[in-house]
């Protein structure tokens, strides 16, 4: 028969273990960790992106990398989307729009041939020259201006926006059925991404009756080709 000797420290540890109640064991559960930040544009290549509905094919040469920025140089290039899909996430991205320019950042984009464009399914954070593009005066209550939830909710603080030719730092947080838009450090839009309030907003927008519009809880991030020159940089994301 083999005998084991316990040190004083070992006896103490054993005693604590045996006397630990279930409540004690769960008193300090580990907090869920946020995902690590991931660059989805490396500043050098278009790796990790493809044209909508064209996975595995080269991105249109009208989308270029110039001086560390991802830029659309001409229209008819098509929207580009991430290779990866995301559910709950935090996205940081900087954008600069040309005079009279229009673009957009979309999320939860479902890539499926039944949907001809990325905005058929993906809600949009608007990218716009508010002073010169006619879209700024369309819609209701400025709900097509920079930073808005396009055609649905206007920014609460229009002064957060920087005009054409200047960089804007945007942040988009989607988590637990809620989304928040930030522009240059200010939260300017907040909304539920499902439920009665969301359904009401959709019913009062151009997306009323669109069968697939934000019907998916995961999807791709998209950058829009609206035919105008736009620049993006410092694009990173983390899953929540």
UniProtKB/TrEMBL annotation:
<keyword id="KW-0732">Signal</keyword>
<feature type="domain" description="3-keto-alpha-glucoside-1,2-lyase/3-keto-2-hydroxy-glucal hydratase">
    <location>
        <begin position="36"/>
        <end position="238"/>
    </location>
</feature>
<protein>
    <submittedName>
        <fullName>DUF1080 domain-containing protein</fullName>
    </submittedName>
</protein>
<dbReference type="InterPro" id="IPR010496">
    <property type="entry name" value="AL/BT2_dom"/>
</dbReference>
<feature type="region of interest" description="Disordered">
    <location>
        <begin position="133"/>
        <end position="153"/>
    </location>
</feature>
<dbReference type="Pfam" id="PF06439">
    <property type="entry name" value="3keto-disac_hyd"/>
</dbReference>
<feature type="signal peptide">
    <location>
        <begin position="1"/>
        <end position="27"/>
    </location>
</feature>
């Amino acid at each position: 028969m083999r005998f084991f000797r316990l040190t004083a420290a070992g006896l103490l540890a054993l005693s604590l273990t045996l006397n630990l109640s279930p409540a004690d064991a769960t008193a300090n559960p580990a907090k869920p960790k946020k995902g690590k930040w991931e660059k989805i544009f490396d500043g050098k290549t278009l790796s990790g992106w493809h044209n909508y509905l064209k996975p595995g094919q080269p991105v249109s040469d009208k989308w270029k990398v110039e001086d560390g920025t991802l830029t659309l140089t001409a229209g008819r290039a098509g929207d580009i989307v991430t290779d990866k899909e995301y559910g709950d996430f935090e996205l940081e991205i900087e954008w600069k729009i040309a005079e009279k320019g229009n673009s957009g950042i979309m999320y939860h984009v479902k890539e499926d041939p039944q949907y001809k464009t990325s905005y058929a399914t993906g809600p949009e954070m608007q990218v716009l020259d508010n002073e010169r593009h006619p879209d700024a005066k369309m819609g209701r209550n400025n709900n097509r201006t920079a930073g808005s939830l396009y055609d649905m909710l206007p920014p609460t603080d229009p002064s957060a926006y920087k005009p054409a030719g200047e960089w804007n730092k945007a942040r988009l947080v989607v988590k637990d059925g809620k989304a928040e838009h930030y522009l240059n450090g200010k939260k300017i839009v907040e909304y539920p991404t499902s439920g009665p309030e969301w359904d009401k907003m959709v019913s009062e927008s151009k997306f009323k009756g669109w069968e697939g519009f934000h019907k998916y809880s995961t999807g791709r991030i998209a950058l829009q080709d609206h035919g105008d020159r736009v620049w993006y940089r410092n694009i990173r994301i983390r899953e929540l």
